[in-house]
Input
Amino acid sequence: MRRSNRIPHLSRAAVLASASAIALAVLLTLLLAGPAHASFWAPQHGGSPNADRIHTLYSIIMVIAVIIFVAVEGALFYALWKFRMRPGAKAEQLHGNTRLEIGWTAGAAAIVLVIGIVTFIMLPGIRNPDDSDADGWQIPASYQTAKDPGLLPPNGKSLNIDVNGQQYAWRFVYPDGDNDRQNNVTAYEEMVVPTGTTVTLDVRSSDVAHSWWIPKLGGKADALPGYTNHTWFKIPRGKEGVYTGNCAELCGRNHANMTARVRAITPEQFTQWLARQKAAIEAAGRGAQQYRAQQAQNDQRSQQGDASQPSGEPVPSPSTVPNDATSPAAQR
Ligand SMILES: [Cu+2]
Output
């Protein structure tokens, strides 16, 4: 039996129909994929002016690219169809067309120039923070913690939060106007911010490379050990809510669990939240101080007790008993 007898001959129409069906299925799958749908054509936006500008710039370049793609592919398929092989027809040999060559060189240069100009016009608005709104959170002058004035909004005021990536969580430290960082308000995974207020971020890492990314609030900022990167966002008034993201740099086994949330609340609510956090930290600090004072007193008492009992069995006090003897591990 010959090989060709076993394989059914497919007509050109059948091949074309199958290829079209596969292409359509792939396209529909991509378009209808739930989470990907919102950001299929362009980056997410709607949470911060820099994210909106990234989206606009991306869309402009996307439209130019789509027009070029359709024109080039259209010309290609037209040529394939128009000049397809026909029985008896002889191909004509052509040499270069100077006008055409100059035309598409100049055309390509013009396209690159347009994209370059648009990008350079829009980049400063993406990189440099906007001023806070008049009804945003009133930032105390002492909160200006960004070292480089170029990273501050024009009015010099922003809520500057320290973002520290560590396997596998984001740690946020809020400024409080003093040099003691031990008593600063600190949060993990969820950053609470006021709306209408420019939030500048110092992005760092304490172990390996991570990447800070809340898609609706702007582009990624790499968190690298030994460096401080900067980014910013400003969630408009009325857009209070939760914005989520994920570490965007493979940083280890639990990278996928390294999520981040930004909870935007009104400036009034933020003032209350900050005061509550600060009060809780101060209460915890006072508790720790009292505990340490009590321990020191106990130590002193037990030393005096030892000194007044030169003979006989010394009475062991908790502080003279080695720690591990009373620890749960030692009792097991
Ligand atoms: Cu990470």
Remarks:
- The beta strands are 159-166, 169-173, 186-188, 190-194, 199-205, 210-212, 221-223, 229-233, 241-246, 259-265.
